[in-house]
Amino acid sequence: MDTKLTLKLNDEVIEKAKRYAASRKTSLSRLVENYLKSLTGRELPDDIEEIEISAFVKSMATGTSIPADIDLRKEYGAYLTEKYS
Question: Got the DSSP string for the chain?
């Protein structure tokens, strides 16, 4: 059962969200619903292929694996010593 929900949001945010939804050929209501489902851990509908990963998160991926036994404080200290020496 669908229920109407009223939200107060910044006008600029609403316009950007509408453009985002339109570029993905979906409604703003559906976009918000799917986002809230993802936050609450409910499964997304079958017609959603995958959740898009933002460019910022993608930019953080380096493909480098970090050993589990690494001493991060020691490594960072060595990095700072080399940087400022």
Answer: ----------HHHHHHHHHHHHHTT--HHHHHHHHHHHHHTPPPPTT---PPPPHHHHHH-------TT--HHHHHHHHHHHHT-
